[in-house]
Design goal:
The protein has 153 residues and is mainly α. It is built from five helices and four strands, in the order H-H-E-H-E-E-H-H-E.
Length: 153
């Protein structure tokens, strides 16, 4: 049986994964330091899936399909977990109502949203990012999908 999952670390479908140990190894490369993060993310994902209001009732891409257009699709978008970033959107209302002061009902504003999942030290420690200064992640990366690796715009 094939496991339909997007790895948080490689952001691509794990096509060869057939059991949980395959998913762990492909996501972490067998690195034991990432084991705790792997377990935490899997647990958090299951909790979000089971507890998100209306998560099973709405498929955001029914109306917002253009956000998935690209050869690289961000893992939460691919899996339909839009509420991981847009936790204040009430999708049952059309047009949607937003229960927060953030733009698009985002969980956090700016790069803080990205650092909710992506390790800030790894990102800022990357030489490519050394001169970004006050730029936000979304200045260079599309948060939904792209035709370029690493979701580059």
């Amino acid at each position: 049986m094939q496991i339909a999952i997007i790895c948080w670390f490689v952001e691509e479908p794990l096509a060869s994964a057939t059991k949980v140990t395959d998913v762990y190894y492909e996501c972490t490369g067998g690195n034991m330091k990432r084991l705790v993060l792997f377990i935490t993310l899997c647990t958090a994902t299951l909790i979000l899936l089971l507890s998100a209001p209306g998560a099973s009732a709405f498929n955001c891409t029914d109306c917002h399909a253009s956000l998935t257009e690209g050869t690289v699709v961000h893992a939460p978008v691919y899996n339909g977990w839009c509420y991981m970033c847009h936790d204040s959107v009430n999708a049952s209302d059309i047009p949607h109502t937003i229960d927060s002061k953030t733009k698009f009902g985002l969980t956090y504003e700016g790069s803080a949203l990205c650092f909710g999942c992506h390790e800030q030290a790894e990102v800022t420690g990357n030489p490519v990012h050394s001169s970004i200064g006050s730029m936000a992640c979304v200045d260079c990366h599309n948060p939904h999908a792209s035709d370029n690796a690493k979701l580059i715009r």
